[in-house]
Specification:
Layout: H1 29-42, H2 45-49, E1 62-65, E2 68-71, H3 88-97, H4 112-115, H5 120-130, E3 144-145, H6 154-162, H7 176-186, H8 192-195, E4 213-215, E5 218-220, H9 236-245, H10 257-264, H11 271-283, H12 300-313, H13 315-318, H14 336-339, H15 344-352, H16 372-382, H17 396-403, H18 429-437, H19 445-458, H20 464-478, H21 487-507
Antiparallel strand pairs: 1-2, 2-3, 4-5
Helix pairs in contact: 1-5, 3-5, 7-11, 9-11, 12-16, 15-17, 16-17, 18-20, 19-21, 20-21
């Protein structure tokens, strides 16, 4: 049984600062603690081991799988409920062999299939750091797994078949940079845990490393050197920029858990490590090319419906050509969510939307505006328009299934009216008055352009994303959330207003 790591552990978990195993050397005690802290951050240890942010590493974060729910362990040095009595050998056993101090086998949600490749120096640094974190007394909940997966002894058999222990060994035919990237990707980064397809036993498929996989109802795309890879069109510098910032010159954007992975992990890596990762991903040898089934045909009626929905609700930000607005709305042309083999990420984007992030404005939720058929139509449209070759036709039944897992970004207003979370109360009275004057009519482009020009004069340091977020957020909260009309009608007017603002910002 191979239970996959939750996406917060990374849809692209390329995380570690350690060099290749051959080059790793033990650091001085103080350096080990500092290095271990950094490794724990870039490896996203908090993702599975912190449920309450005020109690870091105290465990009990629920990790859901098709076979039940597990809970991240308390890894603080508390002697009763944490790892305070563990030796470095005990710690190494859990990390690299999947066995706890008491001899019990760990579920492979703990990615020891990848951690087995971590160097001794990195294990030592991580152990040294976790000995210094604040002890928290909190007993880890027992896993709630279906039979026979609740019998931990059975994991021994699974390990015997699917788990191969061993450190990373440099490939002498490759450059030092490539080897460093391979170590970062394959070891502490545990990229395979999300991006490699699995077999019926939930073990990674041999020969298909990093070729994409569905994880916790998201699609972690193909990041291999395969011809269908979502990164095939990117240069190494563009890939480095994406890993560092969540966007690049292609106007592509990280969404969902991948955005969190970059925020909390990849953005902290040294430039040399990011370059090593990019070098490895762009130059690795693919032992078995991915095969993609031709997409099931989409009917003329579905295409017509999807195009109309897109035109009415999406084109104002993403453009009729799908290329988006640089710094405001990302491209839909050739993006992993629209060209990948599976549509889950695109569906969830439409259902739940996204709060404003970095250079990108708000993506509204349409969960209570569109029915399953409308969502499937618009997703089918964007995954087949503008040369996109998204695999598979989306059925309404898949939309209904994914709707149960889509979180809405702001519960303070009706769920489909996701107002940007920027504190719009900081806006001056004159700007608020201008926004209220629009009423429920988004007005002409000329009126919106004047609003944007006035806003720039009052807030000269505001960037494009801030302007769109602040103005559209104020309109959402001060006008549309209390306006009359159906939710769908108000949502459409809000989206139209936001699109007008985006176009005015781009033009000025």
């Amino acid at each position: 049984m191979r239970v996959r790591m939750i996406p917060l552990a990374a849809m692209l978990s390329l995380l570690s600062l350690s060099p290749s195993a051959r080059a790793a050397t033990k650091a001085a005690p103080d350096d080990s603690v500092k290095r271990g802290e950094y490794l724990s951050q870039v490896a996203h240890c908090t993702a599975c081991h912190t449920n309450d942010p005020s109690r870091p590493f105290a465990g009990n974060y629920p990790i859901k799988s098709p076979f039940g729910t597990m809970y991240g362990a308390n890894i603080t040095p508390d002697r009763e409920t944490g790892i305070g009595t563990w030796t470095e050998k005990d710690f190494e056993g859990a990390m690299r062999r999947g066995v706890r101090k008491d001899g019990a086998y760990l579920y492979p949600a703990m990615p020891y299939l990848e951690f087995t490749k971590i160097s001794d120096a990195d294990i030592h640094a991580l152990y040294a750091y976790f000995r210094t974190v604040k002890p928290v007394q909190e007993k880890t909940k027992d896993a709630d797994m279906k039979f026979p997966f609740d019998v931990r002894l059975g994991i021994a058999g699974w390990q015997a078949v699917y788990f191969k222990q061993g450190r990373y060994v440099d490939d002498e035919s490759q450059s030092p940079q490539w080897n460093r990237g391979a170590y970062l990707v394959q070891g502490l980064g545990h990229c395979d845990a999300c991006h490699t397809p699995t077999n019926l036993a939930m073990a990674p498929k041999t020969g298909k490393a990093l070729q994409g996989n569905v994880v916790d109802h998201w699609f972690a795309p193909d990041i291999s050197g395969d011809q269908y890879s979502g990164i095939a069109k990117w240069s190494e510098p563009e890939l480095v920029q994406y890993l560092k910032t969540g966007h690049n010159k292609q106007n592509d954007a990280a969404v969902g858990p991948m955005a969190q992975t970059i925020d909390l992990g990849l953005s902290h890596l040294d430039q040399s490590d990011l370059q090593a990762i990019a070098s490895y991903l762009k130059n690795q040898h693919v032992t078995e090319q991915a095969t993609r089934k031709p997409p099931r045909p989409v009917s003329v009626a579905e295409k017509t419906s999807g195009k109309q929905i897109f035109s009415d609700n999406c084109a104002s930000c993403h453009g009729d050509d799908g290329k988006g607005v640089n710094g405001i709305a990302p491209t839909l042309v050739g993006a992993a969510s629209t060209s990948g083999a599976q549509p889950q990420t695109a569906i969830r984007a439409v259902l739940q939307g996204f709060a404003p992030h970095d250079r990108w404005g708000v993506m509204p939720s349409f969960a209570q505006v569109f029915g399953p058929g409308e969502v499937s139509d618009v997703v089918n449209y964007v995954r087949t328009a503008w040369g996109n070759n998204g695999g598979g036709r989306v059925d309404p039944s898949l939309v209904t299934s994914l709707a149960r897992y889509s979180d809405l970004a702001d519960s303070q207003v009706e769920s489909a009216l996701i107002c940007p979370s920027t504190a719009t109360t900081r806006l001056d009275a004159a700007t608020i008055a201008q926004i209220k004057a629009f009423g429920t009519d988004p007005k002409t482009p000329a009126a919106t352009q004047q609003l944007v020009r006035d806003y720039r004069s009052r807030y000269p340091k505001a960037d494009s994303t801030n302007i769109v977020t602040a103005i559209s957020g104020a309109y959402c909260r001060n006008v549309m959330s209390a306006a009359k009309g159906t939710l769908a009608e108000r949502q459409q007017r809000y989206v139209q207003f936001m699109g007008n603002v985006s176009q005015a910002v781009a033009a000025n």
